[in-house]
């Protein structure tokens, strides 16, 4: 076995030991097609108030701008489908936010993987990213053979669904590259488009981020949510899983085995009244390690008020 094959197997094997479910590797190249699509999407204002999407455009499409001399883009997937679903008829929370903040959990494991690579192979330049830097992670996942991008913009893994966190490790290490995923198993299905409460999913695999419930409940910083989406939130108070819940491929979802993502009892069971009764101190204590802390109590209260009236 030559060194490149050996290094590739070593990385894929250790990624499983770290709890990642899938690992694919693509050659680090400029993403010309994605550059054009991203430019069009931004020019139509589909990023809403997410101004950061406009920043660092060149970094998004060229991995060598993030890691000088980049040779390989390693994409890792971690299942987050919960073992229990919300039991309450109160506010609904997106499944990715049931447990600990995935940024913290996965970043630590990416760092461990990079450290292991350096210990086993030698000095390797690399950086890990998890939904926190200008990286087009779903494109890299498709290019590394892990799945296809569905009509709702999510990565879909055949026989496993879409409830996966995506992490990216860019390195200057040459590796064996997986074949890009060329199939698309969405076919003529339009369930995600039909189920989107605000009509944010458009034909042609375009998601208008400025109309998405996740945008309104998490990203929008204004004190008020626009009146034109009144009555469309279906009790979602943090994020939205409507398009994933109806996807036929998600019938294959299996509960994760990650202790860190174990659902918080409060998320599973609290009623609207109990959510409304949170004090600042209680909120900070309960959601200290949760993605929900991102909106702060003020944001949750705004969202609760919006879905109540």
Automatic annotation (TrEMBL):
Family: Belongs to the QueG family.
Residues reported in the UniProt entry to bind [4Fe-4S] cluster 2: 196, 212, 240, 243
Cofactor: cob(II)alamin; [4Fe-4S] cluster
InterPro entries given in the database record: 4Fe4S_Fe-S-bd (IPR017896), 4Fe4S_Fe_S_CS (IPR017900), QueG (IPR004453), QueG_DUF1730 (IPR013542)
Superkingdom of source: Bacteria
Active site: 131
Residues given in the record as tRNA binding sites: 221, 298
Domain 4Fe-4S ferredoxin-type: 177-206
Subcellular location, principal: cytoplasm
Self-association and partners: Monomer.
Pfam families: Fer4_16 (PF13484), QueG_DUF1730 (PF08331)
Enzyme class: oxidoreductase
List of residues binding cob(II)alamin: 60, 131, 152, 155, 166, 214, 240-241
Organism in which the protein naturally occurs: Niabella pedocola
Positions contributing to [4Fe-4S] cluster 1 binding: 186, 189, 192, 247
Catalyzed reaction equations: epoxyqueuosine(34) in tRNA + AH2 = queuosine(34) in tRNA + A + H2O
Keywords: 4Fe-4S, Cobalamin, Cobalt, Cytoplasm, Iron, Iron-sulfur, Metal-binding, Oxidoreductase, Queuosine biosynthesis, tRNA processing
Subcellular localization(s) per the UniProt record: Cytoplasm
Protein name in the entry: Epoxyqueuosine reductase
SUPFAM superfamilies, A to Z: 4Fe-4S ferredoxins
Cofactor: binding comment: Binds 2 [4Fe-4S] clusters per monomer.
Pathway participation: tRNA modification; tRNA-queuosine biosynthesis
EC code: 1.17.99.6
Gene Ontology MF term list: epoxyqueuosine reductase activity
């Amino acid at each position: 076995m030559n060194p490149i094959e050996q290094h590739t197997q070593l990385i894929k094997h250790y990624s499983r030991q770290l709890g990642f479910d899938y690992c694919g590797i693509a050659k680090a190249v400029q993403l010309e097609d994605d550059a054009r699509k991203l430019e069009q999407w931004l020019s139509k204002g589909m990023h809403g108030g997410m101004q950061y999407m406009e920043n660092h455009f060149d970094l998004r499409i060229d991995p060598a701008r993030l890691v000088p001399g980049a040779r390989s883009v390693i994409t890792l997937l971690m299942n987050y489908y919960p073992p229990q679903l919300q039991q309450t008829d109160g506010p609904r929370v997106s499944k990715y936010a049931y447990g600990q903040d995935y940024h913290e959990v996965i970043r630590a494991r990416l760092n461990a993987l990079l450290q292991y690579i350096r210990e086993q192979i030698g000095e390797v330049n690399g950086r890990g990213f998890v939904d926190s830097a200008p990286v087009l992670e779903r494109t890299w996942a498709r290019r590394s053979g892990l799945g296809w991008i569905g009509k709702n913009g999510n990565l879909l893994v055949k026989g496993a669904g879409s409830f996966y966190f995506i992490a990216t490790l860019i390195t200057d290490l040459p590796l064996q590259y997986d074949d890009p995923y060329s199939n698309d198993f969405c076919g003529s299905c339009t369930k995600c488009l039909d189920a989107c409460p605000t009509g944010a999913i458009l034909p042609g695999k375009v998601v208008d981020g400025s109309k998405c419930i996740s945008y309104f409940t998490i990203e929008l910083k204004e004190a008020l949510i626009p009146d034109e989406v009144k009555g469309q939130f279906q009790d979602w108070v943090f994020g939205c899983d409507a398009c994933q819940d109806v996807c036929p491929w998600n019938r294959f979802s299996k509960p994760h085995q990650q202790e860190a993502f174990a659902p918080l009892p409060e998320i599973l069971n609290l009623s609207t009244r109990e959510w409304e009764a949170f004090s600042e101190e209680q909120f900070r204590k309960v959601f200290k390690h949760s993605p929900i802390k991102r909106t702060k109590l003020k944001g949750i209260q705004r969202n609760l008020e919006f879905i109540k009236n």
